[in-house]
């Protein structure tokens, strides 16, 4: 069975896109990531084409490596270094903190991404996109409850956010075996966003949930 796709982030610069392309090649998953990675839920953007893993990542060292290739965390640290220098003189810049979180998120270093997202949200708590990313990072780390809690908070600020609703539905389904809850989120998403470009994928996922035996969800 092919699992559903996730939502990537769109706030990309050319250097970030090139960095992630290199990361994808290094990790041997070039065909499985587009813009922002997705094994489980991610944040803003549209649906990409790749395969979802039903087990969360484990932070540093969780990605496969090619022999002799630089480690993802080393690449992330190199990318983060100039941003960390800027942070020394501007420690309360939410955009800078978010960028640092994104660097580590993109390199699958989720435990390193979360503290930067937390600091950004302490300054700008209503940023639903960043909060959704942080929830996604928790999900990659295997914590469905914390992921859903952050999605819930994000929806208090942006109740019709398609990305947050998509991701919360996916975690409810895959992480909590709550098929009805997932379908409710996706129905809300489609009702609030009638032109949502991932409509066909969501319909397919809802059909899969409905065709799953109740005993498998409980």
What this model shows, in words?
The chain contains 10 helices and no strands. With 218 residues, it is an all-alpha fold. It has a single domain, classed as Alpha Horseshoe (Serine Threonine Protein Phosphatase 5, Tetratricopeptide repeat). The longest helix is centred in the middle third of the chain and has 18 residues. The protein is elongated. The N terminus is likely disordered.
Question: What is the alpha-carbon Rg in Å?
Answer: 17 Å
Averaging pLDDT over every residue, what do you get? 75
Q: Please identify which CATH superfamily we are dealing with.
A: Tetratricopeptide repeat domain
Low-confidence spans: 1-5, 8-69
Total discrete domains: 1
**Euclidean distance between termini CA atoms:** 19 Å
**Shape estimate:** elongated
- Please state the second-level CATH architecture: Alpha Horseshoe
The counted number of beta strands is 0
Estimate the strand proportion.
under 5%
In the CATH hierarchy, what is the class?
Mainly Alpha
Question: CATH topology, anyone?
Answer: Serine Threonine Protein Phosphatase 5, Tetratricopeptide repeat
Give the helix proportion (percent range). Answer: 55-70%
Structural features:
mainly alpha, Serine Threonine Protein Phosphatase 5, Tetratricopeptide repeat, disordered N terminus
Helix-strand layout with pairing:
Blueprint: H1 14-27, H2 72-89, H3 94-106, H4 110-123, H5 128-140, H6 144-157, H7 162-176, H8 179-192, H9 199-210, H10 214-217
Helix pairs in contact: 2-3, 3-4, 4-5, 5-6, 5-7, 6-7, 7-8, 8-9
